[in-house]
Amino acid sequence: MLKAGFIGAGGRSQGAHYPSVNRLEDDVEMLAVCELDEEKLAQVAQKYEFPHTYTDHRKMLDTEDLDVVYCVMNEKWILQPALDCLNAGKHMFIEKPPGANSDETQQLLEAAIANDVYCMVGFQRRYAAVTREAMRRVAEKGPVTLAVTTFNKQMIGQNREFTTTLWNDVCHVVDLLRYMAGGEPVEVTAHRDTFAAEQRNFYTAFVRFDNNVTGVLFGSRASGGRVLRSELHGVGIGCYMKIPEEIEIYEDNNRSVMGGWEVDGVDERDSANYEGVLTMHRHFADCVRNRKVPLTDLRDVIHSIHLVDQIEGPLPD
């Protein structure tokens, strides 16, 4: 059984990662937790019965014999704790984005390689049941011809961020686009705009990949509400996904629709079991046990980060 430590007990950790890892009770022991906010620390320590608690992650790393560390925090703060974990020889899971910029991502990657450990990033859209089903169905027909990703929200007015909305949020569908396309970008045409906001909040991109797949990306925070969708097309097949709840498949002029829960044969109410987070954490534990590089390890994700940089382009003064 893997012995796990946690750094951070914020909303994303408590809403997604703690409950998912807790479901891996036969594979992962939740041994220690570190959080500066002592109220949050007490909450998770009681709820998940952590035997060891810390307010200093370095002390946790020095004291506990951990196999993996789940280090989930804002990109503004992630670099040093993550480097400390990697340099301590711990496999690590971090949320997206992996650092405050691509230079920090590169530093984390180099530390992971130097210490022969994994650093897996929480790009859970790859693991969503509807994504996996689309890729399976299109692969049967082959080859992939077109991938489309859309991630819209309404975030207008004052929206001054530490990084950019492409870096810290729309990066999800940049990574998904590249993953579904199955190649590396050789030509990128991107447009960035600002609508009723202080920073860029609108991105479109047209990407040509080295395997002749075309990719199209839409990411707007000036729309009317949250929409997360994707498309994947092959020869004689087109898959249209509402992530995570539905996949609509047109194959040889026949239409079928499946719920994400139906793909994996799980309870519709158990959204964590088909939206990607639980599958992602199972995958991470399996990879660490079997010494296999995770699907969204930095060794692969660094290429998605390079694509993010190409779409972002130079930042305005």
In terms of DSSP E residues, the strand content is: 25-35%
Number of helices: 10
The count of strands amounts to 14
Question: Based on CA inertia axes, which overall geometry fits?
Answer: globular
| Biggest sheet statistics | 8 strands, mixed
Percent of residues in helices comes to 25-40%
Describe the structure.
The protein has helices at 11-22, 38-48, 57-63, 79-87, 102-114, 129-141, 165-181, 260-264, 277-290, 298-312; strands spanning 2-7, 28-34, 52-54, 68-71, 91-94, 119-121, 146-154, 185-193, 202-209, 214-220, 222-233, 237-242, 246-251, 254-259. With 317 residues, the chain is an alpha/beta fold. It has 2 domains: 2-117, 3-Layer(aba) Sandwich (Rossmann fold), CATH 3.40.50; 125-265 and 295-312, Dihydrodipicolinate Reductase, domain 2. It has an 8-stranded mixed β-sheet with strand order 8-9-10-7-11-12-13-14. A 6-stranded parallel β-sheet has the order 3-2-1-4-5-6, with helices on both faces. Helix 1 packs across helix 9. It starts with a strand and ends in a 5-residue tail after the last helix.
Topology:
Layout lengths: L1 E6 L3 H12 L5 E7 L3 H11 L3 E3 L2 H7 L4 E4 L7 H9 L3 E4 L7 H13 L4 E3 L7 H13 L4 E9 L10 H17 L3 E9 L8 E8 L4 E7 L1 E12 L3 E6 L3 E6 L2 E6 H5 L12 H14 L7 H15 L5
Parallel strand pairs: 1-2, 1-4, 2-3, 4-5, 5-6, 7-10
Antiparallel strand pairs: 7-11, 8-9, 9-10, 11-12, 12-13, 13-14
Helix pairs in contact: 1-9, 4-5, 5-10, 7-10
